[in-house]
Amino acid sequence: MSEGDMKEFIYNFLREKNYVIVLDDVWDISKWDAIRPALPKRGTHGCVIITTRSHIIANVACSETDHVYELKPLPEDESRELFHKKAFPKNPCPDYIREYAEKILKRCQGLPLAICVIGGLLATKDNSAEEWEMFERELKGGGSLEKIRKSVISLSYFDLPYYLKYCYLYLSIFPEDGLLEKETIIRLWIAEGFVVPKQDMTMEEVAVTYLSELFSRSLIQVAKRSIDGRATDFRIHDLLRDFIISKSGEHNIVTISNGGEMQWPSRVRRLAIQKSFSLSQDTDNLKCLRSLLLVCSGNMDVGVISELVRRCRLLKVLELRGALLECIPNEVFKLFYLKHLSLRNTKVKLIPQSIRYLVNLETLDLKNCNVTELPKEILELHKLRNLLVYTYKSESSNFTFDHIQSFKAPCDIGRSLPLLLKLCCIEAKESDGMKMVKEIGKLTQLRRLHITKLRSEDGKDLCSSIAKLTNLRSLLIHSFEEGEKLDLDYSVSLPFLRSLYLKGCIEKVPKWISSLNGLTYISLSWSRLREDPLNSLQDLPNLARLFIHGAYVDGLRFKAQGFQKLKDLRLIELRCLKWVIVETGSMPGLQEWNMRDCKLVTELPQGIQHLLHLQSFNICSMGDEFVERAVEDKRNKIGVNSRYSLAN
Questions:
Q1: Which of 60, 110, 233, 259 could form a disulfide with 275 if both were Cys (CB 3.0 to 4.6 A apart)?
Q2: What is the pTM (predicted TM-score) of this model?
Q3: Which pLDDT band holds residue 431 (cuts at 50, 70, 90)?
């Protein structure tokens, strides 16, 4: 669709409708000029809200309405409430430091960012009058708001422990407004050598504590959480990002190439290419390069990548995510010190035998590539911790049976790669007469395992293997084909398992699942369940999301006091289902309920009015009688049932 067609589509869609559109952090007036023609001016009750730090953009965008609202600093009482929440998260402010707290708060001048950062910093201090008085003196008073911002950010940075300073400045590699994936950050930090080992903790667990500390100091923000509340993605405030880019360059932590003219340091240690890069300039200062990271590098010439790698033989990190590669440059396999290699979102199809030379490799990320098999030489990489080789064939993963492209692994993977923490997604087929499901039991350090193409006869050996993987946090089991039964009713104990995905025919819920007290998410898809699964699942103390697909049950009863932590319920393609009952006291915290293609259900779930925290009840592809009753109920606005989203 062309830009003109898109504008016409938006215009016609919004005409004579009520709408609110929010354009956040607009920094270029041309962006507003491009959008404005698509917004109808008459016959509508639309509202457009623009946030910007530029008075010029605000005045131009609102030239016809003159509705410019300039955000003011927080009033005193709200400033104090926010400050105390950050600085004293567990106990109230002690009287003996209240005087210093008020002075520090006054210097923040009502700036939310300053209050959050300073409060988070002070929360790490001892509540001694001497320490608070010293900090108050360091925070020089007076000056403009901009000066205060810079002073606050600088103080917070210099207060970080030495190991966190490197970690924090390293985040400057990520582009503006981009999300920072927790797992990617952790793998990169470890490969760079920033994570200090701690007794009885994996390096990954230590790195998670680093992220938690940066968040508690308000130096990063959580952008997305999993259903159980754990952070999965972060972002950095623009002002903080400007600071870490400046400091990172000053201390030669990261050099950022964004396509413009720049002053190169004499020795570049880490190079993040965010827009474009050419070899026209003298690259002698790249000889000591340790990390090469291509960010937003879809247009990067393959020859430039090969030449860069050829000149930089000391690389430990090579992040080629999204590069226009169909094969791996031969120069890559000469990088003896390489620990991290990501070819995610490239068109690479083949991993050559020369992979054997990367003996220090810890992470091999081939997600969303076209790789379907790994050579036996992969077994010589004894330091591997993360092996990610899979592709999602379709976006609607739960509605397409064969949606994951997994990989064939060589035999003896269990003995050869004992340090593996993540293995996704491996096929269960035999290799050289050896059962892969038996090999998996030797990988006792695994935290995440995704295995596909299971046959019924594999069930006993698989359960025997996963029973040995007591550190598992995430487990996906996918049958060979749609009608293949997953025989999993054997003794298994996984005390730390948080996520369980079963895709295939099980007919009844395996008994061991009811003992998974740490489970927060379970997906039973293409299950052909013939017994009510709720009796086995209702007492799981931490279950927050439940997905049931393709079951053959005719009714579901959510019993009183069951599913106490459930927030998200999805019932999909239950084509024998006729009724649903919710007893009082069941699912007290449910927020979202989705029903799709359950055509024999003719009336709304009985007892839905008891779900006082339900925010949305989305139904799609239901029977005509059900839809008529739902529409009538919505029209009458009966209780929580007025919160329907109908998509039949």
A1: 259
A2: 0.82
A3: low
